[in-house]
Every structure is written in C-alpha cells, then in structure tokens.
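Sequence of Undecaprenyl-diphosphatase (Streptococcus caprae).
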Amino acid sequence: MLFIDLLKAIIFGIVEGITEWLPVSSTGHLILVQEFIKFSQENADFLEMFNVVIQLGAIIAVMVIYFDRLNPFKPGKTKREVQLTWQLWAKVLIAILPVMVLGLPLDDWFEAHFHNFVSVALMLIIYGVVFIWLENRNAREDIQPTVTDLNKMSYKTALYIGLFQVLSLMPGTSRSGSTIMGAMLIGVSRPVITEFTFFLGIPVMFGASGLKVLKFLISGANISLNQFLILLVAMLTAFIVSLYVIRFLTDFVKKHDFKIFGYYRIALGVIILVYALAKFLLA
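Predicted 3D structure, token representation.
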C-alpha cells in the first residue's frame, strides 16, 4: 500500500512543480487532484500540512538555479555585484511585508471560507479574463513596460507588487498570477516580474511551510513514517519538475504573452464548476 501512496505522491509533486510557477493556481490543481487521488493513511491535519509543505520542493529549485545570483557572499563577486544582491534581497523583503501583515492573521480565515470548488473556479475564471484583457489592452494600445531591469526596479514598485501578492490569499488566485498581473498593470515587463516572483517565493513559502508545520505539531497531531515518506517523495518530485518549469517559463516570457494561461484558467475553472454542480446534483 505504501508503494501505491508513493506513486500518488509523485503525481502530486508533478502537479505542484508545474503549477507553482505558472500563473494557473497550484491550489486549484491540488484541490482537483485530491478529489480523485487519496492516500491510504490520509487525514485532514496531514493533508492541510501536505498542501503547503510540498511547496518547499519547488522553492528549493529556485535557490539552486539562482544560488550564485542570490548569494552576496559568493567569491569573485565585485563590490557592485554584492551591492546589487543586497538590494535585490531588500526589494524581496519589502515586497513580502504586506503578506506578513495581512496574510498571517487572515490566512486561516480565507482557507476556512474559500477553500472549495466554487471559490477556486471563480478565481481561476476571473483572473483568466483579466490576463487576456490586460494582454489585449497592452497590444492594442502599444503599451510598453517602463521597468525592464530588475536591478533598476524601485523599492516603491516592489511594495506595490507585494500588495498585489496579498490577493493570492484567496484560493484559486495563484501567487505568481496575482504578482504578475499586478506588476504588468504598473508597467513591469514580463521577464522582470517572472524572475522577481521566483525570488518572492523563497521567504513566503518557507514562512508558510514553517507556520503549517508548527500548527501541525501544536495541534498534537503525529506524522507516521509512511506519511513522512509520502511528503518527502512529493517534495523531491516537485523539486525536480520545478527545475525544468522555471527554465521553461523564463524562456517563454521573453517571446510570448500570458494569454494562453488566461485561456487555460478559464477552461479549468469551467470544468471545476461543472464538476461541482454535477457532484451537488448527484449527492
């Protein structure tokens, strides 16, 4: 039975590794996958922790790919390069302030009230429409981004991006989706915000994972060896898949817009709504 659960964990890891970075909502996909794939030793406490901690695999991939750029102590860096690295971290910390202030007290409330098929589907559709509208508007009016270099992005812009990231508290919104959409609205180029979104995920995901593990332990819940192995395999899979997806997305945004993700979000949202309605009628 453990072998089957580990195969299921691989599926979850693949889904997480792909959807964490694309602006399509990893939460929405995990909710859908969990409807059809269940672990033999699953319980509510473990599943709640699993959904968040699995993201660590994805974020470690960012740290591996961008290790040299994110490391201010890398031997051989010039004084200017070290300065730019510290400035990058300062922008990341400024951008996560809104989530720290609003996210910590509201996260459980949003999860309790909106972690369901209908809410997720509606957010998928709404943001899908916004992405398509935004890209069409920019193309129609020939609107060019004003921020095309992450090193030159202001701290004020980083704060604005952080405010948009707060929208991701709503399940189905997508952390990358909300930051990318918001950044494009204020004139940040696709390559710049895509990369910055990767970096924002480091403190956000480590913080969220640490908080979930702490709550899990405080609640008195225990994790079995099998559950630990399931989580570990899912994280490892998410890490490996993320290595490829991150590189794919950084190349993709240099030549393409985000409309394809908008269409995908709308299609997935409609599918989830239809499924939720059918499930309600057949209950």
